Amino acid sequence: ERSRGLGDVYKRQVPGSAKGWMLMAAVCKTQKDYSAGVYALEQTIRLDDNAPLKAFLNRAYLQVKAGEKVNRIFFGLDQALIRFPHNVAVLNRAIALAGDHQAWARADFYWQQVPAEVQQQANWLLRRAQMSAARGDERNAEEYAKESLSAWQTLPKTKQKSAAMRELKGRIDSVLVAQE
């Protein structure tokens, strides 16, 4: 409560402050008052033509936590993509949300906006394989999983040995085994 009070004081001293609303959103997130956090971030975005990317990403996160309708969350992510075209962090969040809600046409729409060089990375090819499998497209799931493995194999040996890349390889292998 004390933190929220400080946020209110800041907003009174600096009326129309996007920064004040951003601070308020952080407090709301900490207090798990997700709907209030969404409102605060909407004010941030409304007041600041140069609102940072994290305002949009945090709003989407809080919207999910608040249980908002998926189309409203997509609308917010679309706003972010207007301001930050082809931003991989926004597209990552949008594709994940589309997959979670089996909105395959939406997922494809977002996938087409991912820069070509990113689409060819092992982790993105794996994601495409997993989404293909989830929609029942086994042929493409296997193809993307094989492409993911090929992309992984082109990584420098030192990178392949990292924990994150070994974990990625395990997930690729899991998809390939599931396709057999």
Folded structure, characterized:
With 180 residues, the protein is an all-alpha fold. Helices cover 79% and strands 0% of the residues. It is built from twelve helices and no strands. The longest helix is centred in the C-terminal third of the chain and has 17 residues, at 163-179. The termini are far apart.
Helix content: over 70%
Give the H and E element order: HHHHHHHHHHHH
Secondary-structure content class: mainly alpha
Largest sheet: none
Q: How many angstroms separate the termini?
A: 55 Å
The total count of strands amounts to 0
Using only CA atoms, what is the Rg?
Answer: 20 Å
The average pLDDT is 91
Strand content: under 5%
Total of helices: 12
Shape: elongated
Low-confidence stretches: none
